[in-house]
Amino acid sequence: MSVRRQAMDAGAVSIRMKDAQTRLDSAELQMSGQSPHEWKHAAEIAVSAGIAASDAVCGHVLGYKASAESHRDAVTALRHASDSSVSPHLEVLIAAKSTQSYGDRLPTKADAERLVLHARRLVDAAVTILRS
Q1: CATH number of this structure's domain 5-131
Q2: Where do the H-state alpha helices sit in 1-132?
Q3: Per-residue pLDDT tens over the stretch 17-51
Q4: Burial (0-12, 13-18, 19+ Cβ within 10 Å), 37
């Protein structure tokens, strides 16, 4: 089965990178709240920030992002576009996506912080890669 790809030019890469940074800023702001609902929102936004950062890296390095329903293709593409330290962050975020986006359980603050940290590391790596 072939991977569905969406071509990305420099403008698209820039938009996805800005999306990643803006979403991460929002997630970090939500973490300052005291409500588990705010932490759930932070975790959900962190997942979205990580996916956007991954798209930016893949677009910058490979010229495309994976555009399949399954995010496994995005992890594979990110592995090709970066060193081995980057894709594990996306794997953690994607593993949490369904629970955070569609689940009916609230995360602990520590669980939400962990996801925001993975998003931060992925966004920081993306910034470095896009500068090279």
Answers
A1: 1.20.120.330
A2: 10-30, 36-62, 72-81, 87-102, 109-131
A3: 999 999 999 999 999 999 999 999 999 999 999 99
A4: exposed
| Segments making up each domain of the chain, as ranges | 5-131
The SS3 of residue 9 is coil
Residue recorded with tokens 């986006």? 101
Q: What's the whole-model pTM score? A: 0.93
Residues 6+ apart with CB under 8 A from 29: none
Q: What is the mean pLDDT of residues 94-105?
A: 83
Task: Take residue 66 and report the two structure tokens written for it.
Answer: 């994976």
Residues in the chain, total: 132
